[in-house]
């Protein structure tokens, strides 16, 4: 089931209150917020109302908040080695 | 006549517009990019709906009536109708929130004000 990935690029500050209402209905509360909605005529109509403010892409499945955070988190540059005891216990367990 | 209180044209006179009458080259470039972005959004929505054999009235109307960025004339891109301006055109950047409303295509607040002959209100931010 395809989804629209909608990201708010530009704020609706200073625009008619109806635009803010559409953004609220889409679940976009601040800039750079991303929401996923199933592809439907209703959502398409909402996007058309705020097309100057948002970025839209069609994706196969929605990502959770955690997954999106993981994608934008850079590699920390280190990794934690496991304790030798844990490793041995694992080997003996086999 | 030096320092923070030096006599300049804006300080010595009353009303002096400091907004240039035309857009600069980078402003025009960014404006075109915004127009292209709107085209891309509409195309994405259209493509996604077409896969499910769907469409909406607003989308069909947009496709039938609205030119894409490439099809627009420079006159429509960078200027907008004004009944008080010389030759009835003024720079698009003199409309309120012009970069959020892509007003050259007759939509948004610029078009709304134009319909009512109140394009001067938007410029002062009184909307």
SSE inventory with pairings:
The complex is a heterodimer of chains A (94) and B (127).
Chain A (H helix, E strand, L loop, with lengths): L2 E6 L8 H10 L7 E5 L2 H9 L4 E6 L5 H8 L11 H10 L1
Antiparallel strand pairs in A: 1-2, 1-3
Chain B lengths: L8 H4 L12 H27 L5 H9 L8 H5 E3 L7 E3 L6 H4 L6 H8 L3 H5 L4
Antiparallel strand pairs in B: 1-2
Account of the protein in words:
By secondary structure, chain A is of the alpha+beta class. Helices cover 39% and strands 18% of the residues of chain A. Chain A is built from four helices and three strands, in the order βαβαβαα. Chain A has helices at residues 17-26, 41-49, 65-72, 84-93, and strands at residues 3-8, 34-38, 54-59. The longest helix of chain A is centred in the N-terminal third of the chain and has 10 residues, at 17-26. The two termini of chain A are 41 Å apart. The mean pLDDT of chain A is 92. Chain B has one domain (23-123). Chain B has helices at 9-12, 25-51, 57-65, 74-78, 98-101, 108-115, 119-123, and strands spanning 79-81, 89-91. A two-stranded antiparallel ribbon of chain B has the order 1-2. Chain B is elongated and about 70 Å long. The relative contact order of chain B is 0.11. Chain A: Residues 4-54 form the Large ribosomal subunit protein uL30-like ferredoxin-like fold domain. Chain A: Pfam families: Ribosomal_L30.
């Amino acid at each position: 089931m395809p989804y629209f990935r909608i990201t708010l690029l530009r704020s609706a500050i200073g625009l008619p209150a109806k635009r803010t209402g559409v953004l609220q209905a889409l679940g976009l509360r601040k800039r750079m917020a991303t929401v996923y909605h199933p592809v439907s005529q209703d959502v398409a109509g909402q996007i058309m109302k705020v097309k100057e403010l948002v970025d839209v892409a069609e994706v196969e499945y929605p990502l959770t908040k955690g997954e999106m955070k993981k994608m934008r988190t850079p590699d920390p540059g280190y990794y934690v080695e496991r304790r030798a005891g844990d490793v041995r216990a694992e080997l003996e367990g086999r | 006549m030096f320092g923070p209180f030096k006599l300049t044209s804006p300080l010595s006179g009353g009303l002096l517009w400091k907004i240039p009458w035309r857009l600069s080259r980078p402003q025009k470039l960014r404006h075109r990019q915004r127009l292209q972005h709107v085209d891309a959004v509409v195309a994405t929505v259209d493509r996604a709906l077409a896969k499910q054999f769907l469409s909406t009235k607003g989308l069909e109307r947009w496709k039938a009536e609205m030119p894409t960025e490439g099809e627009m004339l420079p006159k429509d891109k960078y200027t907008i109708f004004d009944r008080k301006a010389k030759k009835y055109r003024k720079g698009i950047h003199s409309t309120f929130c012009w970069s959020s409303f892509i007003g050259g295509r007759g939509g948004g607040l610029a078009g709304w004000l134009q319909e009512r002959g109140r394009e001067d209100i938007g410029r002062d931010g009184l909307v």
